[in-house]
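Thread amino acids onto this structure.
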């Protein structure tokens, strides 16, 4: 019996009007207060994300097209972009390899000191970035504990783009590990054992079963590490050297423009970095959607 039939045969009380129907656009929600929580969420996002980003764009809009191009695409700015995005990409790619190995070791094996290693992975989250930069500069400087052995080999690991990449690897590794780790836990050992029972070797099992399952999460970790690397400042300036056209990152160039009271020029550089970051995240999300569609 349908709801309409039940309503038709239900006896009506004398003087009672027609039974009011619930509007179609008002649906019962399993979580009470959805409208309130949605409003609070949008308000917080507007105050913390949308309004500040809009203010940056409006500040950059004070410049004419020629002034914007001169500020955002000068030779010094282009050199900073190349270093910032290039080092962030290389660091995210390196973390993409070693992050998978680290997550695999933490999930698949038990070994002495596993809890310590698991805690050390999260250290870049808790450590102040300035402290991380000072520690890395102390280690990899020519007189440091590690740099002292690299310098005789002709490898200068600090105060150059290599130092920038090292700092970005340090702060980006947890994003890849913590993104891949839950997927590895859900990927049962039975799948690998079934592949082995069918005659697949270890390399074939990893290439055809494990890596495709990790693809979307790997891309997510890569995008998070890349985005963090693009905007990193504190851990980089101590080991970069901050030489214009050589080891100067884009966030530092923005700080320099602000210290010179060139607020519009700083906003122009920030808009370029913001647009490039959004474009990168859009591409990563599109690739993830494509991978989930065929998984």
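Threaded sequence (295 positions):
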């Amino acid at each position: 019996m349908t709801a309409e039939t039940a309503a038709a045969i239900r006896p009506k009380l004398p003087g009672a009007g027609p039974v009011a129907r619930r509007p179609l656009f008002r649906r019962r929600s399993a979580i009470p207060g959805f409208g309130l929580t949605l409003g609070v969420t949008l308000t917080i996002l507007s105050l913390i994300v949308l309004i500040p980003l809009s203010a940056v764009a409006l500040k950059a809009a004070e410049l004419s097209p020629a002034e914007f191009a001169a500020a955002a695409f000068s030779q010094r700015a282009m050199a900073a972009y190349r270093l910032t995005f290039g080092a962030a990409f290389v660091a995210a790619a390196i973390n993409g390899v070693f992050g998978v190995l680290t997550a695999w070791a933490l999930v698949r094996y038990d070994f002495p000191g596993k809890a310590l290693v698991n805690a050390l992975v999260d250290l870049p989250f808790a450590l102040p970035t300035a402290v991380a930069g000072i520690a890395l500069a102390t280690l990899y400087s020519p007189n440091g504990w590690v740099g002292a052995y690299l310098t005789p080999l002709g490898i200068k690991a600090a105060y150059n783009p290599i130092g920038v990449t090292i700092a970005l690897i340090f702060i980006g590794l947890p994003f890849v590990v913590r993104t891949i780790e839950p997927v590895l836990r859900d990927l049962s050992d039975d799948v690998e054992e079934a592949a082995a029972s069918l005659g697949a070797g270890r390399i074939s099992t990893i290439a055809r079963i494990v890596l495709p399952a990790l693809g979307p999460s790997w891309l997510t970790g890569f995008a998070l590490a890349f985005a963090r690397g693009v905007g990193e400042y504190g851990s980089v300036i101590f080991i970069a050297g901050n030489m214009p056209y050589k080891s100067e990152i884009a966030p530092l160039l923005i700080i320099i423009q602000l210290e010179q009271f060139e607020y519009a020029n700083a906003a122009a550089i920030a808009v370029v970095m913001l647009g490039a970051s959004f474009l990168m995240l859009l591409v990563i999300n599109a690739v993830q959607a494509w991978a989930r569609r065929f998984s």
